[in-house]
Design brief:
The protein is of the alpha/beta class and 280 residues long. The protein contains 11 helices and 7 strands. It is 42% helix and 16% strand.
Length: 280
Amino acid sequence: MSIPETAEFARRSNAHVFGKGSRTLLCAHGFCSNQSIFRHQIRDLHFQGTHRIVAYDLAGFGQSDPALWSAERHARLEGYAEDMLHLIEELDLHHITLLGASMSGMIGVLASLQCPERFEALAFIGASPRYLDDEPYVGGFQQAGIDAFYDLVHRQQDWAGALSGMMLGEPVSLALQEVAEGIRGVSPEVASVVARAIFQSDYRMLLPQVRHPVLITQTRSDSVVPVRVGRYLQQNLPNAQLALMPGVGHLPNFTQSGVFNRALLTFLATVEASVKEQLP
């Protein structure tokens, strides 16, 4: 399927559609990333034929139109959720499973709560409802550490290197070099505003409202999202399962794609079977 000529927002978001399945897998990347991190899912799931796959670049990142990003609009994740719904409406997407990496996990929660009829399920990759510790909740970060990162961005020091180290969790190999380069390509202004939208947010109160099935994935060694956050999501979402991936880092769909794709395909099949059971 090609992007319709009338789909201006989709084109400005560098959206791509693969396949012609009756269901939709909507891929939304995380902070300082782009849609290329989903290429292993696009490659493997495209041949399954059950889902058309839609991938796009969030405002401020990748090859999206720079004019899409607004410091005011995107100072909260709600702005990105509005963008996602705009894309869904423009492309007339239905039966959606949102594959949301990092910040896009909660963006997907916000969008699915606003238009639940468009969604069937959510699949998280290293998602978190709150990144800051809040006793007894453990989010993985203290405010002082986050403030130090903000200061690196403000002084335009090696904030991209620090973020690469957190996200990848290992020395940057040739295979991961493109991820690190993508981070370096983000403007400091965008990084500063969106980092605050992420790290100062708290969406824990929304979790009990999510009625769609949710797959929670993350590695057992993620410097951004501790395993305790994954377990918190599992306990506080009404219909969720947790799949811990081997290896390290914040992008198991990219670094452990074989294991990740098997877990995702199993989840998608379960969701489809459940939907069919509910049909009259």
